[in-house]
Please model this.
Amino acid sequence: MRLKNRLFWVAAVIGLVLDQLTKQWIVHAFELTVPPETVALWPGVFHLTYVTNTGAAFSLFSENGEWLRWLSLLVSLALAVLGWWVALANRWEQVGYGLILSGALGNGIDRFLSGEVVDFFDFRLIRFPIFNVADVCINIGIVCLVIAAFRASADDAGNGNGKSGTGGKKINS
Model:
């Protein structure tokens, strides 16, 4: 049996492994303190800062984020079903959905095991909220899906028949 959506699964596994390994490294290498322990990799621009977050992205819903663990589980299950049963149209979709799955699983694992998510990427130049590899995977996955959507609409517009793949050219058989 041939694995459907191979790039989906590769992206999901690589993203999840990177997320969990980096979080474990941060937890073992840093102390969770107030104020948070930080290491400047590029002073004033980029730091590694160990914090935890009970909410969603950018600490949204941090006051009542219990339901986020179930949302992570639901999204993860839905994406796994998508990857298993649906033939995704192209590599952009496969990688995009796979990366979103890795992010949902990575943060979901944290929420189920400890009730909070480990964050550590700290871009201070623009005062951006601290985030992690799972968050990066979700955002790159969204960018991949946007690219897939634009590519599909460009293909549809180019051939006039709504079917992509031939670019409007007749293929001789």
About this structure: The two ends are 30 Å apart (CA to CA). Confidence is low (pLDDT under 50) at residues 161-173. The chain has four helices and three strands.
